[in-house]
Design goal:
With 595 residues, the protein is an alpha+beta fold. Helices cover 31% and strands 24% of the residues. The two termini are 54 Å apart.
């Protein structure tokens, strides 16, 4: 007999009855029923009930072992005479124990594994090895493995090859802070951990490979959010040679649609996914990450209010602002307190107030109704397609602020009144991002999205068009209001690259210094190419049905970018610092001494 087990704890069924077996696992739970000891034994595969009768001399010893003790049990499989558990695959059988061995003694655990009670996140992360035993997070990590395996299989079916790119590389301005690694053999110089394999995957295309992918680790020194882990994350990194934007969409749609259909029973959009131009997304949804489960869209009514005589709005419009209308159906019968709370919420997110109109069978009412004549109210009703029982909310502000506030209110109201579609995954591509934007702080033109992108219209557009009117071959894939990835058809020509950076205020020397490998490689015959990199962590988060990304990562950092289990980041001793030619600043030493 195997020294630890003949079967797993999720394997035994009725056809194993009368067979002698050996099981090993953790004591998940125990119950004493009239002197008969019942133990739920758990391993990675499931739970089996084992039974120890009073005639066994070791019953008392086993009955007082702490939960989570690792134990081996020997015994015979029998049919449960009563208390069949239909919720367990092994629920029709139990094992009558005649021998046991403690394989791994356990102290009393700091929180329960059986009965998943609420536990402070830092305590969970400090003892993550225990937290990972809890069924929900354990299943999330299993799901993650299965999803990644499915991604790999689907990518290979599309003819992609998996390559690994360097972890120690050079610093690259990708929009976030780098993690730097000091070099011992090159004093005063630093490697950087890659924010993404961006340049390497482009170089692979220039090297003659046609289709690349990688489950790539990426490192960015960013603050944590519910949907963003600080420090490191993983993405399905993709690049294709001789590819158009539609070629990339076709592959990504097939892979994502297949993965979501495989691992969820929720309704998933049919192919192809909807395409929404960036400006349309900002106008109608107030964001470039629209949640299409919400059947509400904003409308621009600036022109109507510019001539309506309502001074509060017309003054905003004169200063270059806009007025956005957000129609919401069938909520006219809500109490006044509902609207008052929305006004307070709008003010809490930066709005000066929140105007609204309520359409009823016999009249239009609301705080601003008295400022609008019948003609204007009719025009509003037509523009917003309202009917009796509907309410229209208005936001007047700069275009950027109106989008932000209106988009936030759209989500808030939809959640408050139950308009968010349940049990569905709604995808879209946001396309036609502006190549450049005006940087108000620096008072100059800068890249808006990705400096590696090909401008629509190529060199001719860069030379002849207003930079703020140039679109790029850039795109985001969004699901349920969560951005899964940004991507682009790349700029593969040195002359176009130099010109784009020149418009953004960088001369040729900066390009050659920061992107020397790319600019040099482009001179030796670069193919048109493009790609994308959907975030693995966010995909698993959606499929697991959680809103916290740390629930789908085996060993995540906490919100302060600390690994409490491994005590990282940690201090370096003097010898290590000398080897790396590093001296701590006075403020760092003071902080260290204070700790």
């Amino acid at each position: 007999m195997h020294p630890y087990r003949t079967h797993t704890c999720g394997e035994l069924r009725n056809d194993h009855i009368d067979r002698r077996v050996r099981l090993s696992g953790w004591i998940h739970n125990r119950r004493d029923h009239g002197g008969v000891l019942f133990i739920d034994l758990r391993d990675h595969y499931g739970i089996t009930q084992v039974v120890i009768y009073p005639d066994r001399a070791f019953q008392y010893e086993v009955g007082h072992l702490p939960k989570e003790t690792t134990v081996r049990f020997d015994g015979v499989v029998v049919h449960r005479s009563e208390n069949v558990n239909p919720k367990l695959p092994t629920g029709e059988i139990e094992v009558i124990v005649d021998d046991f061995e403690v394989l791994g003694p356990a102290e009393h655990v700091p929180f329960t594994v059986f009965q998943e009670e609420e536990v402070a996140e830092d305590l969970r992360l400090k003892h993550r090895y225990l937290d990972l035993r809890r069924p929900t997070v354990h299943q999330n990590i299993v799901l993650r493995s299965q999803i990644i395996a499915s991604m790999r299989r689907r990518m290979r079916e599309h003819g992609f090859l998996e390559f690994q790119t360097p972890i120690l590389t050079s610093s690259s301005p990708e929009g976030a802070r780098d993690y730097l690694v000091p070099s011992r053999v090159h004093p005063g110089r630093f490697y950087a951990l890659p924010q993404a394999p961006q340049q390497f995957k482009q170089l692979l295309m220039i090297s003659g490979f046609d289709r690349y992918f990688q489950i790539a680790p990426c490192f960015r020194d960013e603050d944590a959010r519910a949907d963003r882990s600080p420090g490191e994350f993983y993405q399905l990194d993709i690049e294709m040679a001789f590819a158009t934007q539609e070629d990339v969409f076709e592959v990504v749609e097939d892979v994502l649609h297949g993965v979501f259909a495989e691992f969820s029973d929720k309704q998933c959009d049919a192919l192809p996914f909807r395409r929404i131009p960036y400006r349309e997304a900002m106008l109608h949804y107030g964001t470039d990450k629209p949640d299409l489960r919400i059947p509400l869209t904003m409308t621009d009514v600036s022109e109507l209010f510019a001539k309506a005589g309502f001074k509060a709005f017309s003054e905003v419009i004169k200063k270059g602002g806009v007025v956005r209308a957000l129609p919401v159906p069938s909520i006219a019968d809500r109490p006044r307190s509902f609207f008052d709370r929305l006004v307070e919420y709008a003010q809490s997110i930066g709005s000066k107030g929140l105007a609204y109109l309520v359409w009823t069978d016999d009249k239009v009412k609301g705080p601003i109704a008295k400022f609008l004549d019948e003609e204007r109210l009719g025009e509003l009703a037509k523009a917003c397609e309202v009917k009796s029982g509907d309410v229209v909310f208005f936001v007047a502000a700069s275009e950027t602020e109106a989008a932000r506030i209106g988009g936030d209110l759209r989500v808030k109201i939809a959640n408050d009144v139950g308009l968010v579609e349940e049990n569905a995954f709604r995808f879209c591509w946001v396309v036609d991002f502006p190549m450049f934007e005006w940087d108000e702080e620096r008072k100059c033109i800068s890249f808006s999205h990705n400096p590696f992108s090909m401008p629509q219209g190529g060199m001719e557009a860069l030379e002849t068009k207003d930079p703020l009117e140039i679109h790029a071959f850039q795109y985001d894939i969004v699901c349920n209001g969560i951005e899964l990835s940004s991507g682009a058809i790349r700029n593969h020509r040195t002359d176009v690259m130099y010109k784009a950076f020149e418009i953004a205020g960088y001369d040729k020397s900066v390009v050659d210094e920061k992107f020397g490998a790319l600019s040099a490689a482009f001179k030796y015959g670069a193919p048109p190419h493009g790609g994308i990199a959907p975030g693995v962590d966010r995909i698993v988060m959606l499929l697991a049905g959680t809103t916290n990304i740390r629930e789908v990562i085996a060993f995540p950092m906490n919100q302060r970018a600390q690994d409490l289990m491994m005590n990282a980041p940690g201090r370096a001793n003097e010898e290590q610092l000398r080897e790396l030619h590093i001296r701590l600043s006075a403020s760092a030493r003071e902080q260290e001494q204070g700790e």
